[in-house]
Task: structure prediction
Amino acid sequence: MLAGFLTGANMLLVVCLWALGFAIASFIFGIFTKDYSWIDRMWSVLPVFFTWYYAYRSNCAFLVCIGVALVTFWGVRLTFNFARKGGYTGLEDYRWVFLRKKITNPFLWQLFNLSFICLFQSGLFVLFTYPIYSLASYTNENIPVLFWVFAAVGAALVCLEFAADQQQWNFHAAKKAAAENREYPSKYSGDVKNGFLSQGLFSVSRHPNYFCELGFWWAIWLAAFSFTWDPIASGIFGPVVLTFIFIGSTILTESITTSKYPEYLNYKKRVVSPIIPWFSKK
Result:
């Protein structure tokens, strides 16, 4: 019966039900373990899983497979970076730790956990992978040139995000070495003293990773959009909602960072762009 449902029901409906099931499971695990990052550990896995299911249901349609390849590349990067930072070893997202101190009422916190952390984020996976679902409706005849352009842009942004990840990783390695009185590259001495990275890609954007992440999903949508120029049918709501989430996350993250590192205010004045790379001030 289950196999028949997976192969016979509308594939978007199946993905929505999967998303709902994982959200409820994450909520339950959060209650029992007091760890509210279960859904965060699915960020790099569920979207890839959803797109592979779209490929399976569309009989590996060429356009869908191109989208799946891009999303899988994105997922590999995110999984690797999340794993090496200890994300799969019980490390809870610092934003939830911070917010839990603000939302002290247990009922309100669990309501926030269910509604935003679990249900909303799981639903977001469905939204920003929707363009891959929409590609199943198109044939591989007369593929627009813009499709390949945006697909290439998406791949390039993942590569750029790899670079931003590595720069951040190298900085934190230097920061750890300094705390343990070990040697580290002198180029990081100023940043280690200030407590945050301000060079490389972080000299033109305070959050280059966010720029690459958002840019990737906008590129995926634009690739689908290039077929019909219909923003709704191609799934524009995914990248739009994701953009607002990242704006909110930027505000929250920077408020936490500013409270910990006073020099961050000067960094914000010098690197004026929070997300989109731009010229910095002397």
Notes: The mean pLDDT is 93.
